[in-house]
Automatic annotation (TrEMBL):
It comes from the Bacteria. Keywords: Membrane, Transmembrane, Transmembrane helix. The chain crosses the membrane at residues 20-43, 112-130, 137-157, 188-217, 229-247, 259-278, 290-308, 343-362, 374-392, 398-418, 425-449. This is AcrB/AcrD/AcrF family protein. Coiled coil: none annotated. It comes from Sphingomonas floccifaciens.
Amino acid sequence: MTAASRVETLLARHWRQVTILTWLAIAAYWLWDHWGGVYWLALGDTDDNMRLMQVRGLLAGQGWYDLTQYRLNPPQGFNIHWSRIVDLPIAALILIFKPFVGIAWAERLACGIAPMLPLSIAMIALAFVMRRLIAPSAYALGFVIMLGGMSAMLMFMPMRIDHHGWQLAMLALTVAGLADERQARGGAIVGLATAVSLSIGLEMLPYCAMAGAILTLRWVWDAGEARRLTTYALTLGGGSALGFALFASNANQAMRCDAMTPVWLSVLVAAGALLFGIARINPASRGVRLGLAVAAGAIIAGGFVGFFPQCLGRPEGVSSELQKTWLNNVREAKPIYQHPIRLSLPIAALPVAGLIGALVALWRARSTPAFARWMPVTLFTAFAVLMLLWQVRAGPAAQLLAVPGATALAWLLVPWCLGHRLMAVRVLGSVAVFLVISGTAAGLALQFLPAGKPSRTTQIVQRANARCASIPALRVLDRFPTTVMFTHVDLGPRLIVLTHHYGIAGPYHRNGDAILDVHHAFTGTPDNFFSIAKAHGARMLLTCPNMAETTVYRAKAKNGFYGQLAKGRVPSWLVPVPLPKGSPLRLWRIDYR
């Protein structure tokens, strides 16, 4: 037996151990590479900062079902629409590390390690898929390709503690369930992964719906798939009910549209009951099965329209003003073709290769039993690619779901190149094929495109964003007695993480009134700011000159309160408070006398 054969046999026989060791190696490297971010508690996203605050509240004794953030918009606090599911691993790691390193370092280490935990689940699920669809050892190549999908990998890296990594892991489990030959296990995996994902948040709702549609269509085509659909229906309804009972916050008991509330619980339980019923009937005629599936879909859709008409628009349910000034301007919510090629090409390269690979594999398997396993995976991959035409934030999911198809394509083309009679094809061709399929070539190609140096304004904004959110800049505020600080919306979550002060707002849609108050205060007249700040009980004003959010204030109202402040026109009721030399922040005491 050759060395290559021994390695292939080892990979095939010990795939679980190899997968875990590979994950540990990736995690160790990432932790080393991001150690600076761990040291400085560099939670770059507002949601990551808010997640840590939710965990702190839980560990401090805040109620399990109370997800109100009382450090923003006091005294009533800020209503956060999340669940406790993602808080649990972070809290557990903090409790484990705290006796050995103290609370500050325990938080740092937990924030560094927790995001990498769901990557292990995603890798096991993808390895499961690739072993069954391609070859027993193909998963090793798939892991290398997976690392080329940087949009997806960024969701698992240290300090990215929000829920996206866990939802991507549930998505990978969904693919594993779709590809599983064992019907009961496959259906249960898809149903439970869907229930967990939606209990975390509704971001993956379109993918969850598509997975259910694929399983239903599979049963329509083949009555022998009834057991898979039955177990899916039971675990979908039961898992969703359990997730709601265990994790739905007090605020999510209302008939809201943006989280796992009674609205979506009703839909999921009803869908599970209907699918269970038609699968148990399981008529022999394909036409009758199709009719039952269509009827079930019509009942679910009609019931949703009839009982929950308030949810037919945007699920956030914000005012038209907030939607126009805030939500509609979120870059990630725009389709991929509206973004520059330097952003869109690296995101789309791997998904496109994955779809091509899945289609090729499906065609090659057309006369074999593997066709039934490749079909649902191919449909799911195609759906993920189409989602990019809706919102570019679908990039991480599209890249992760592309891994099986891209691996299948590489598994076909790389050996062909290696066996070619020309050395140039064997060497250069193999490398080129791998780079193109993994999406790495797209990133390299951008090096040859005219990038254009960032403007001076852009550089100034980027520098302000980074410096104002840093520990050295914000920790000095703790020398002042605890108070309510009126500051920018995007700085609010970071302020409460790094200081003992209170803020007014954060970028969370359920608290649109507070967000608009901040916008109106900074863009209106000085007198308007004064009255709004007083109504919120703010005693200090904290600004970050040239922060991205401030450019919006100045563009919208050049002579508004912030525009005047930026020009040095300070009202008499603002008393400057000195900060250390070189501080990027500006601080004033608001004198209400």
